[in-house]
User: Fold these one by one.
Assistant:
Number 1:
Amino acid sequence: MPLPKDTQPKASHYINGAYVEDTGGTPFDVIYPGTGEVIGKVHAATPAVIDAALEAARAAQPAWAAMSGTERGRILRRAADIIRERNHELSVLETCDTGKPLSETLVADATSAADALEYFGGLAGTLTGEHIQLPDGDFVYTRREALGVCVGLGAWNYPTQIAAWKGAPALACGNAMIFKPSETTPLCALKVAEILTEAGAPPGIFNVVQGMGEVGSALVTDPRVAKVSLTGSVPTGRKVYAAAADGMKYVTMELGGKSPLVIFDDADLESAVSAAINGNFYSTGQICSNGTRVFVQKGIKEKFLARLAERTASATLGDPLDEATNLGPMVSAAQREIVLRYIETGKAEGARMVFGGKAIEGDGFWIEPAIFADVTDDMAIAREEIFGPVMSVLDFDTEEEVLARANDTEFGLSAGVFTRDITRAHRMAAGFRAGSTWINTYNLTPVEAPFGGSKMSGVGRENSRAAIEHFSERKSVYVSMNPTEAPF
Ligand SMILES: NC(=O)c1ccc[n+]([C@@H]2O[C@H](COP(=O)([O-])OP(=O)(O)OC[C@H]3O[C@@H](n4cnc5c(N)ncnc54)[C@H](O)[C@@H]3O)[C@@H](O)[C@H]2O)c1
């Protein structure tokens, strides 16, 4: 399929309801991972651009917060409708930005953004405080108030979805947002901003600025910012959380993982294999919540591995814009290098390569999906986040043993269990130290369910009503119905 001609954005940034350019900022290329072609160029935000975005957001936010929630919600829901109408075009852009196959982006990216805008648009009119009765007629009421200007920092794997998962709840609560996409995938968030304007969002409510870590850092440390929501790696999370703490700002941290997927002997084998495939190879393994440590009970180990290898061999790698393709390239040459190094490490550590794992030569950042068996808990490939299509299969004997091993990690993003034993399934779900868990499926993240991590995987939750708590604060108002007394 030919690449679309219009991938170059109208300008690098989107501020105060319009595209803004400042060629004084460091230029960087937008690279299509399918072929390695340069498909656009954007400039990192200069201090003047960062200041303009902060000023626009600060100026616009009070009037936005003063609107009724129902009015704000109507705008978000209109944006959701526009996104659904343009799903094809937005999915093609997401594929160009990330390299993820169109067969995925058509169902998982713009549509997920629309879900978030629709869901939080629906909630916006329902946000209320409470009334607390006290003795002698006194009472307290609480007001749920917006935080002010919020900053969103995005990773490169889901650029449209991340912009909306942060923007929708922030805006529903009456905040303004400045979103900085990953420098690897700068295109999609601009479209979200453009569509919000078209849907009626006042200028300044959702702004996009481009750049690397320094631009993110300038936003995080600015005193005009009340909250920072990051989707990224643990090392970046540490820095951003510390910088935000200095200004006593609210944070949401959606970070990395090394999540366990536990498959018992009694599991439905085909479903378990599907979950292992989805939880390791969907988006070419570039998903934070992936179940990259697949614990398989010894009784079904060889059967599981054989079926897994057979089904993985039927993956269709090819032109990401061809809907028949179901496995795309890595997002960048650098990420492919990281993954290939881990594959070499796995071999050197003595893990058994059951399938794939080789770089595919030619244009673009292609790699075969890799399956390792006989992986042990101490191996680097079982301990560190790889963020690519590398599955580690580990064996286990008992429930007690596997739960302890599953939790023996610094991360705590997600976990899954496959079993037909209903009480064991719930015991495992309760025992996992992770924010999102699944029983007999993996990686489903509907907007209605809270999503986020425990331990080093993060702080706070996205999606669901829980996100409202993270984008608003409660003010209490004490009302006296009695004369005020004093000791003298
Ligand atoms: N938990 C989740 O919801 C989730 C979802 C997707 C990805 N991730 C994680 O993201 C990582 C991959 O994405 P990535 O490589 O883009 O992450 P990254 O940590 O390198 O970058 C994330 C964002 O932070 C910005 N940034 C970097 N340094 C900064 C600083 N000092 N101050 C402010 N901003 C800074 C980057 O420019 C980028 O926009 C993986 O670890 C993955 O697990 C987590």
Number 2:
Amino acid sequence: MIIVLLGYMGCGKSTIGKELAKTLSFSFVDLDNYIEKKEAMSVTNIFKSKGEIYFRKKEHEYLKELTSNSDKLILSLGGGTPCYANNMRVLDREGINSIYLSVSVKELSKRLFNEKEERPLIANIETEEELQSFIGIHLFERSSFYSQARTVIKTDGLTIKNIVENIIGSLY
Ligand SMILES: Nc1ncnc2c1ncn2[C@@H]1O[C@H](COP(=O)(O)OP(=O)(O)O)[C@@H](O)[C@H]1O
Ligand SMILES: O=C(O)C1=C[C@@H](OP(=O)(O)O)[C@@H](O)[C@H](O)C1
Ligand SMILES: [Mg+2]
């Protein structure tokens, strides 16, 4: 089985994925880190020097690679992965369990304002209010992709441990 975590930037895909993998003794891959290793460049620098379209092409390619020959894997996607190149269709097969970690706009803005530098799509937004209004629109645009996941978990107010338990509970 492959468990795929998806959702907006800052929803906890990387953090929860790591914990979930430890708890289940699965291997863990963060798609952004995988791309960075394969391309020998940070996501920020890929966006800067090669552009977003190049990033989306590589993201699609590596998603197919990772999902075609893995088992007992937790795969944390990037926030945009479900929204490009028919990637939700790549995930729509037996053996892949996709989980959308849903978080409110307010909580996402709070978390991301402190961590926007390493996220090229929001790095230049100056105030938390502007960030909140950007996320409100962007999340609305992306929601139709995210909600194609097999399972949706609302995680506001939950600890990382709670969320891991909820995910494991949803598997049976
Ligand atoms: N359940 C949670 N409660 C509070 N903070 C969280 C939770 N999950 C993640 N975070 C924090 O939110 C930030 C973004 O998490 P991250 O795992 O990088 O998100 P993503 O990979 O989805 O962009 C990190 O600082 C992380 O520690
Ligand atoms: O939402 C997006 O389009 C992106 C999210 C990022 O991943 P995180 O969701 O882990 O921040 C990373 O893939 C890139 O900066 C683009
Ligand atoms: Mg991440």
